[in-house]
Amino acid sequence: MIELVDIRKVFNSGKPSEYSALNGISLNLGSNKVTVLTGPSGSGKTTLLSIIGCMSRPTSGRVRLSGREITSLPERFLTEIRRKTFGFIFQQHNLIKGITALENVMLPAYPLGERHGPLKERATHLLGRLGLSHKAQSRIEWLSGGEAQRVAIVRALINDPSVIIADEPTAHLDTQLSHRFLDIVERFKSDGKTVLITSHDPLVYKAGVVDEVVHLRDGRLEGDTS
Ligand SMILES: Nc1ncnc2c1ncn2[C@@H]1O[C@H](COP(=O)(O)OP(=O)(O)OP(=O)(O)O)[C@@H](O)[C@H]1O
């Protein structure tokens, strides 16, 4: 599904602050699999996620998505791929204050031009699936941390992405809500989705639903000495 070939990422190239965050990562992420990316702080997990999710480009190396080379595509194609293929769940959920949970969920679908009625129906249905029907009209700032987290998950699903990317999804969740998140991952998987998670949390990387754990250290796959 997603193939990475010799991915390198250098920040601030040519400056005294030059930093090589990824040093030749080659990796295959199988379709309909749950992969966890783990490793110490600063090992390059978020940098790699943002490259896989078409949010940034590698300095060198190739990314193939379902066999299609996407590394060198112009920005507008990458934006389209990003919208249609990926659903993102960020550590800080980036939900917008001052508008309701329902409106937050619908926002990523607006650029795709879907009619308002069916979109609202789908968003309402998805909120219900995560037990949030009664919070649809609540403003984001009125929700608890766990509720906001679930709104962020629903928002990630609104365009029916085939790949879900979650960056430290349980960082702000207690044990019970972390288990709830893993139940949701289980559901993604049975819906045929591919899931990629970064996590330091043993509760996540040791979970039964996880197919593969990839360890990063110093921008390399652990055990890879090439
Ligand atoms: N835009 C940037 N400019 C310069 N250096 C950067 C930039 N983004 C990340 N880095 C550096 O690249 C390295 C990898 O960062 P990254 O955020 O990918 O690590 P991480 O494994 O996700 O860490 P954490 O677990 O703490 O979130 C870090 O040393 C970081 O300081």
Rounded average pLDDT: 91
Helix content: 25-40%
Shape: globular
Listing every helix as H and every strand as E from the N terminus to the C terminus, the arrangement reads EEEHEEHEHHHEHEHEE
Total of DSSP H or I helical runs spanning 4+ residues = 7
Strand order of the largest sheet: 6-7-8-3-9-10
Please state the structural category.
alpha/beta
Extended strand count: 10
First and last CA, distance: 24 Å
Question: How much of the residues is beta strand, in percent?
Answer: 15-25%
Question: How would you explain this protein's 3D organization?
Answer:
The protein is α/β, with parallel strands linked by helices and 226 residues long. Helix content is 32%, strand content 25%. It has a domain at 2-94 and 162-222: Rossmann fold (3-Layer(aba) Sandwich). The protein is built from seven helices and ten strands. A hairpin with a 7-residue loop joins strand 1 and strand 2. It is globular, with a radius of gyration of 18 Å. The structure holds adenosine-5'-triphosphate (ATP). Adenosine-5'-triphosphate (ATP) is lined by residues 11-12, 19, 21, 39, 41-47.
